[in-house]
Amino acid sequence: MGALLNQRFLTLVVLAAVIAVLPLLFPSSYYFRVASLVWVAALAAIGLNILMGQAGQVSLGHAAFFGIGAYAVAIGPTHLGIPSWAALLIGAVLSAVLAYLVGRPILRLKGHYLAIATLGLGVLVALVISTESGWTGGPDGMPVERLTLFGWRVSGSYTWYWVTGALLLIGTWIALNLDETPTGRAFRALHDSEVAAQVVGVDVARFKLQAFVIAAVYASLAGSALAFMNGFINPDQAGFLHSVELVTIVVLGGLGSVVGSIVGAAVLITLPQALTVFHEYEHLLLGLIIIVSMIFMRNGIVPSLSALLLRRARS
Amino acid sequence: MTILKGTDLGISFGGVKAVDGVSFSVGSGQILSIIGPNGAGKTTLFNIVSGIYVASRGTIHLADEDVTGLAPHKLAARGLSRTFQNLQIFQRMTACENVMVGRHLREKCNLLPALFRTPSVTRQNRETRAAALDLLAEVGLKDVADVPAGSLPYGACKRLEIARALAAEPRVLLLDEPAAGCNAVETEEIDHLIRQVADRGVAVVLVEHDMKLVMKISDRILVLDRGRPLAEGTPREVRDDPKVLEAYLGQHGAREAARA
C-alpha cells in the first residue's frame, strides 16, 4: 500500500520535473510548440487508456469527442457569445452526454463489433462537423478566439507549454488515482472476466459506461486545449485518422499504463518531426518503427521496458 | 429455513433440453451437492441460478423473494455468490485485488471521490485490503497476496475463487467443482473450508465429481441425468439407490462411496 502510494507520487514528481526541466534544453519556441502537442495528445490518450487499457473496451471513434471539445470552444465564443472558458466546460459536458447516450446501447457490443460501432460514431460526428459549414466553416475549418482567464489572455507557445503541461499533470494525477479504488478495480475486473465481475456484484454495463464517459471528457478537454493553442480548428481533428492515432499512442505506449500513454504520445508526435530529414521516406520509416517496436515490445513501450529493467535488477 | 429454492427449472439450447424440470431447495448452513455424469446439466443449472442464463421455465426464490431472471450482479447484491468450473479469475490483478473486487458490494463506489482520491476512499481501501488479506489467510494464500493471480498454480486459483466469492459475505454460495484438479491434500483443505463456511450459516450448493468429498460433506444430494432429476436424498439414500449406483456411480464409484 505504502509502496503503491509512493509509486503514484513518484510518477507525478518525475513528470512534473520533466515538464519543468525540458524547456532548459529547448533552443527555440518551435520546441515548446511540439512539446505542447505531445502534452495534449498524451492527455487524450490517458483518457482513452482508461477505457481501453483498464476497462478493456475499444473506441475507434474517439477523435469525435476531441472534435466536440475543439469545436465547442470555436463555435461558442464566435457564434453564441459564450465566454471561452465556459465553452470549454460546455464541450466537456456535451461530450459526456453524447458518450452516455451512445455508450448505453453500443457498449453491449464486444470486440470487433464495438470497434465498428465506435468507428461509426466517429465518422458521424466528423461528417456533421464538415457539412454544417454555417457553424463550423466546413472542411476549411474555423478560427478560434484566444482563451481569456480572469483578464489574462492565454497565448504564445511558451505560455501554452505550461498550461498544457499543467493539464497533463492533473490528468495523470486523476488517472493514477483510479488505480486503488473500487471503480478502478471494477474496470480491470470486467476487462479480465466479465462474468466473474458480474457474479461478485459489479454492474458491468454501468462501469463500461463510466469508463467511456471519462475517456470522452479527457478527449474533449484535450481538443479544447489544442483549439485554443492553435487558434484554428479543422475537421481533421475529429476524423478517423486522428482516432487511429490516439489508439496507436495508447497501444504503442502500453495498454493500462498511464506513463505509457505519455511516452507513446511523445514518440508518435516527435518522431515524424525528427524523421522529416528523410523527406519522402518519412512515413515509411514511421510505420517501420511502429511495427518493429510492437514486435519487440508487444505489451507496449513502458510495460515492456519496465519488465525488462525489473528482470535485470533481479539477476 | 429454506433460503434458495428452484422450482421446475428448464432451459433448452436449440431443441436440446439441457435442464428439464429440476427442483431443489437448500437451507442456511446446509450443503446440497448436485452430481451426475458429464452433460447432466449441473453447470447449466448453476448458470441459471446465478442469473447468467435465463430459464425458459420455472422459478427461483432467494429468501422468499422471486428472483427469476434477475441479472447476476443483482443476485449478488441479494447474497448469491459463486465460483466457476473453468477458472474465472482476474489474471492481471494480484491475488489480493481479486478478493478486493469480491468486496465490491460492501464498498461505497462513487466516481468523483475515486477520481480525486478523497481521504474516505483511501480509508475504505485500507479496510477492504485488510478484509481481503484475512480471507486470503483463511484459504492459505496470504503469502502470495501481491502476486499477479495469473501466475498462481491451479489449486491456488481454485481457492482464490472461493475467497473472492466469500468476500461478498454471501448467504448462498455456489461452488462449481472446487476440488477438480486438486490433489488429495488440497481436496482435504477444500473439504474443511466448505464445512467452515456452512457452519457460519451459509447455504452451500456444490457441483463436484469427487464422490468421496461429496458423500462426506453433503447434507443432501441431487442427482441429475441428461437434464432431468434422477434421485434426491441424503448421501446414504442416494448411495443405496440402485438406479444411481448402477448408472452414475458405477461399481468403482460405489466402492469409493462405501469407503468414505
Automatic annotation (TrEMBL), chain A:
Q: How does it sit in the membrane?
A: Multi-pass membrane protein
- Which CDD domains does the protein's record reference? TM_PBP1_LivM_like (cd06581)
Protein name listed in UniProt: Branched-chain amino acid ABC transporter permease
- Main localization (coarse): membrane
* Entry's transmembrane regions: 9-26, 32-51, 58-76, 82-102, 114-138, 158-178, 211-229, 249-271, 283-301
> Which domain of life does the protein's organism represent?
Bacteria
What is the organism field in this record? Microvirga splendida
Q: Which residues form a coiled coil?
A: none
Question: What keyword terms does UniProt attach to this protein?
Answer: Cell membrane, Membrane, Transmembrane, Transmembrane helix
Matching InterPro entries: ABC_transp_permease, LivM-like
Automatic annotation (TrEMBL), chain B:
Sorted alphabetically, which CDD domains does this protein's record hold? ABC_Mj1267_LivG_branched
Residues annotated as domain ABC transporter = 4-251
User: Keywords of this protein's UniProt record, alphabetized?
Assistant: ATP-binding, Nucleotide-binding, Transport
The protein's matches in InterPro entries, at most eight in alphabetical order, are given as: AAA+_ATPase (IPR003593), ABC_AA/LPS_Transport (IPR051120), ABC_transporter-like_ATP-bd (IPR003439), BCA_ABC_TP_C (IPR032823), P-loop_NTPase (IPR027417)
Pfam families referenced in this protein's UniProt entry, alphabetically: ABC_tran (PF00005), BCA_ABC_TP_C (PF12399)
Question: GO molecular function terms here?
Answer: ATP binding
Q: Which Gene3D superfamilies match?
A: P-loop containing nucleotide triphosphate hydrolases
Q: Does the keyword Metal-binding apply?
A: no
UniProt superkingdom: Bacteria
What protein name does the entry list?
ABC transporter ATP-binding protein
Organism per entry: Microvirga splendida
